[in-house]
Amino acid sequence: MSDPLGTRPAPGPDQPPIPVRLVTFNTHHGVGDDGRHDLPRLATVLAAADADLICLQEVDKYYGGRSEDVDQALLLSRALDMQLAWGPAIDEPRRDRGTRRQYGNALLSRLPILVSDVHPLPGGGEPRSALRTMVELDGAALWVTTTHLSTRSPQERAEQLAAIAQLHTEPMQTGVLVGDFNADPGAPELAPLTGRFADAWELAPDREDRAGWRFWHARQGGTHPARRPHRRIDQVWVSPGVGVTRAHVLDGAGASDHLPLVVDLEVRSGV
């Protein structure tokens, strides 16, 4: 709605921070812990999170029978009425049809996506990538980088994180780095993030997980494996200028072998 009298406050450091709800979820290409590919089930879990930004890993695009040979990210974006940025890590030609066989990361957004680019990461074995996007807020912008790191070695993950950290240069400082890190937050290979980002789970004054009766894992934010979560490998890291009010692990309804992590952010206006 327009403001012809100019009474709306201009964006700036004196204005209230901008709330943004973010989800990160390793979807296991839509195959749940029951072994079934069920994209509507996954869409229901994501819709219940009521998020502004949804960062997904292990997403298939015309990958074959394991995911019914569909473009998962596109179907989810349509089901949730959200904008889409796609970042393949595996990208291979197919002989049987004109499409390519892809697998990687996706961002679904209620907010306008201004920039989107894909960055291959160093390492051997399964290819890995980082999907970097910039979304528009009311009076600010936020960089969001989604990734899925290697399982091969700590050294390889350290190299990948060093490459990702270089993506957040001086003009792009206000942002978040999210995804499946395949390492605990305190692992030595996460050292490239120290000083540039902070662990959102540790910053959040309000935290809730799915430890249930396993009280020795309570408030630790475990997201994997879904049935008995005790590893906090799905993480959100925030830069200066981004606050955290709440972090909680959702019930994934059996939609994946991971659980979704929801983080409520506050982005400083005018950044």
From TrEMBL:
GO terms for biological process: GPI anchor biosynthetic process. Transmembrane segments: none annotated. PANTHER family: CALCOFLUOR WHITE HYPERSENSITIVE PROTEIN PRECURSOR, ENDONUCLEASE_EXONUCLEASE_PHOSPHATASE DOMAIN-CONTAINING PROTEIN. This is Metal-dependent hydrolase, endonuclease/exonuclease/phosphatase family. The keyword Hydrolase applies. GO terms for cellular component: membrane. It holds the Pfam family Exo_endo_phos. Keywords: Endonuclease, Exonuclease, Hydrolase, Nuclease. One of its GO terms (molecular function) is endonuclease activity. Residues 23-258 form the Endonuclease/exonuclease/phosphatase domain.
